[in-house]
Structure formats: structure tokens, C-alpha cells
Amino acid sequence: MLQREGYAFDEEAVLRACAETGTAVEMNANPNRLDLDWRSCRRAKELGVRLCIASDAHAAASLLDFRYGVGIARKGWLERGDVINCLEVAGFLEFARAKRGRAPEAPKPRRASAKRAAKKPVLRPSASSGRPEHVEGRSSAAAKGERPRKGAKKARGKKT
Asked: In the beta sheet, which residues pair with residue 134?
């Protein structure tokens, strides 16, 4: 499975620096990489370093490689709280706030105003370039400069 040699570096010094700065360490779950050994996971946990399991996916099928990272994490005695992408949202935001000093608030869903909802954009070809351009709040027939079809329903409804 492992097809390359690991980098020569002082892993203990890196893990200690990560513990001091609150930096998470990535576990590459690609079966050709598996860059963080299970023994290193265990040592990181002992030092209080959190980890992140990454699939190294460059294609959708590679997302399935995540299971290899989970296997290494389990072998290294990691638990859900040790892996930042296994935390609940609140736990992840707490980690991010501690690391950055302040994490951005979760975005609130936007609701379209009544005016904006009534004005649907319509595309029509530009007279000069032929490319589509937006025309706000106009029907497609009006945007094309055409007259509405006979018998077409009016927007206001019928009078009775």
C-alpha cells in the first residue's frame, strides 16, 4: 500500500509545536500515502494535539478512502473528540475560535424580499453582442420586444 518513503523530520518537535499553538495535524487517508502512522496518532493524542482526517480526494471515488484514515485513527486510540472533523458544529467552532481568536458566525439564511421575489430575472440576447443579458422584472416576451400571445393570461387576473 505505502508507495513512498516518509519525510525525514523531527516528528516529536512538530507535534510539540502543534500542541503549543493549538494546531491540528492532518492525517492523509489515501492508501498510497497514509502519512500519519497510528503510533504518531497516539503520541499526538498524548500531547493534546487534535487531528483532521483528510481523504486527499482528487475525484469523487477517492472520498471512499476516508475509511482508511478512520481505521488508522482507531488503531491509534483516537476518539471522536480528538478528530476535528468528527466534532459537532459547536465543538468545531470552539476549536476554531481558540485557534484564530474568533471564528466567523455561521451565515444566516437570506430570505428574498417581496420586491426581489416579484422581479424574476429574464435573459435576452444583447443587440450588440448577441450574448444573453439580464432584464429585471419583465416577461420574456417583453424582454424580446415581442407582443404577448393572444389568449395569454394577464398577471393581474381576470375581472368578473
From this structure: 123
Q: Where in the chain is the domain with CATH 3.20.20.140?
A: 11-100
CATH 3.30.530.20 fits 11-100, yes or no: no
Across the chain, how many H-helices and E-strands are there?
6, 4
Strand 25-28 versus strand 51-54 pairing type: parallel
pLDDT tens per residue across span 15-27: 999 999 999 999 9
> How far is 49 from 53, CA to CA, in rounded Å?
13
User: Helix or strand or coil: residue 124?
Assistant: strand
Which of 6, 27, 32 shows the shortest CA–CA distance to 71? 27
Residues 38-56: what's their mean pLDDT?
92
* Lookup: cell for 33: 500515502
- Residue with cell string 518537535: 13
- How far, in Å, CA of 10 to CA of 72, rounded? 21
